[in-house]
Amino acid sequence: MKWNGVALLVLLVFSAGCGGPAGLKAADDLALNRDYLGAVKVYDRVLQNVSDDATRRPIEKKLENTKVALVDEYLMQAGEQYLEMGTPDIPTLGIILNSLQSVQRWDDTKGRIGRSIAFYKEKIAKIHALVELYLSKAIIAAYAFEYTLALQVIDAAEKLDPENRSVDFARTRVKRRQVFYGEVLTLLAEKDVDGAVEKFHKLAATFNPHPSLTAAPFAADVLALIEEKVRSLTADNRWHEAVNYIKRLNLPELNGLLRDVRRGAVDHFPRTAETHRKK
């Protein structure tokens, strides 16, 4: 068994003599067996029942030496856990932090436990901030219809903080949008532009603000199919139907097309009326 300097000092101090107030031997035995946490608790109880300074001083010295050994033990354990993580994550850091906080009452005179707690709290805060950054990036990616990227970023956030409910919520929302997006593509492949636009509205409704159709990768296909259908209607002189069709789609991107169709209708009806009068 290897003994560090503090542990060896504790051994020598406790070997220097036993006896004294009730419980002192039990504390010494715990310290000799390297149960430093148990020892400091018993030393503390012993001191509560000792009033004269001559008796207290050697016990206080043993208590302080044992606290140093206890702090060494917990800091070494914390450091090993931290290094074993590779990439720090919230659950493991939480375990380390809880362990240190459990013995903070028995910190040594240098306050090493307190400083270590502050260090790990800062690490946790930075990871929380990084997770929030990842979730923001996922939202931006989803808004740009880049669902694979969004889910990859969410996966990275989950590795850092697997119990974060915001991560689960973000994944659920992105997957729902991904389903709508896939349905839009399927409908477009079937040339069902009306169904595709309806599904796009459902997709857009999951965002605030709603994304523009022109930002979608399939925008050109949708607009081309709509324009094709409008041309077919106007070619058959179904101007009123064409206007209503464009309005029903409720896409700001079609405002220019709507103006053109209305202008065409205005030009068409007088010509038609004049033709009827001549007949």
Task: Describe this entry's structure for a reader.
It contains twelve helices and no strands. With about 280 residues, it is mostly helical. The protein has a domain at about 1-70. α7 (about 145-160) packs antiparallel against α8 (about 165-190). It is rod-shaped, with a radius of gyration of 37 Å.
Short description:
The chain has 279 residues and is mainly α.
Q: Specify the overall morphology.
A: rod-shaped
* Proportion in helices: over 70%
Please report the number of helical segments: 12
User: Based on DSSP secondary structure assignment, what is the total number of beta strands?
Assistant: 0
- What is the terminal separation in angstroms? 117 Å
What is the gyration radius calculated from CA atoms?
37 Å
Uncertain ranges: 8-18, 273-279
Task: Tell me what portion of residues adopts beta-strand conformation.
Answer: under 5%
Biggest sheet, in brief?
A: none
Indicate the structural class: mainly alpha
Helix and strand succession? Answer: HHHHHHHHHHHH
Mean of residue pLDDT values: 88
Task: Describe how the helices and strands are arranged.
Blueprint (H helix, E strand, L loop, with lengths): L4 H11 L8 H9 L3 H13 L4 H33 L4 H13 L9 H32 L3 H14 L4 H25 L3 H12 L14 H17 L3 H11 L5 H24 L1
Task: Quickly list its features.
0% strand, mainly alpha, single chain, rod-shaped, 12 helices, 279 residues, disordered C terminus
